[in-house]
Design brief:
Elements (H helix, E strand, L loop, with lengths): L1 H7 L10 H7 L4 E4 L11 H10 L3 E6 L4 H5 L6 E6 L4 H7 L7 H14 L5 E8 L8 H11 L3 E6 L18 H15 L2 E6 L4 E5 L11
Parallel strand pairs: 1-2, 2-3, 3-4, 4-5
Antiparallel strand pairs: 5-7, 6-7
Helix pairs in contact: 6-7, 7-8
Length: about 220
């Protein structure tokens, strides 16, 4: 919170700054705990989640599913994501190149644990589609959904940005219609449907029911 306020300090002297938005920005309400490394490695993660919830903040945890033992004892966040990059063991080894020899088995165990957590938190799977690499085996993707029964499945395109450009090509970035078509195929195999999409982000959202117009309390 102190870091957030320090980053915004210069806007206070800018006459065109929206004072209302500036005030709101100094008191962030949503905390996405993800990106560099796996959040579950952080030894004080449960303590952090409890503190934020006590302050009436929302927490979003993203993990790649390699630490099922940590996931099993995780204090339920507001929303829990598991990132999945492959529909089967063969492609998992090729794409993820996990440091764990039993990486695929760890992922499957985490998906099973996710299913048990859906009463306490919003659960989600995040599928990153890489053209000419993992846009295959729709039944495998659907099997991962059936195993974890998440509330949401986010199906998004790989984006040719950052250090990934050293490993992949721009041709590996699927267009939105391709993402949508593939997501529809997966959904039909496991009883999920598209409830939302964002074309310029090349992402679609799958769920068993449409939550539009409903207030979800967590």
């Amino acid at each position: 919170l102190k870091g957030q306020k320090k980053q915004l300090s210069g806007f206070g002297g800018y006459e065109n700054a929206d004072k209302k938005k500036l005030k709101e920005a100094k008191e962030p309400m949503h905390f996405a705990i993800s990106l560099t490394g796996d959040a579950l490695i952080y030894p004080k993660l449960n303590e952090l989640i409890k503190i934020l919830h006590k302050k009436v903040k929302t927490t979003f945890i993203v993990t790649n599913g390699m630490l099922p033992d940590k996931l099993r004892i995780l204090t339920p966040p507001t929303q829990l994501y598991i990132s999945v990059d492959a529909p089967n063991k063969e492609l998992f080894k090729k794409i993820d190149r996990s440091l764990f020899k039993d990486g695929w088995e760890r992922l499957l165990e985490s998906l099973k644990i996710l299913k048990t957590m859906k009463k306490d938190t919003r659960t989600a799977l995040r599928f990153t589609l890489i053209k000419n690499m993992n846009m295959t085996d729709e039944e495998g993707w659907a099997k991962n959904i059936k195993l974890s029964e998440p509330l949401f499945v986010e199906v998004k395109a790989y984006m040719f940005v950052g250090s990934s450009r050293q490993r992949l090509q721009i041709e590996n970035m699927p267009r939105h219609p391709e993402v949508k078509e593939f997501a529809e195929k997966i959904g039909k195999l496991c009883g999920y449907k598209i409830i939302d999409e964002k074309e310029n982000s090349r992402v679609v959202l799958l769920a068993k029911e449409d939550f539009e117009g409903r207030i979800m309390k967590f």
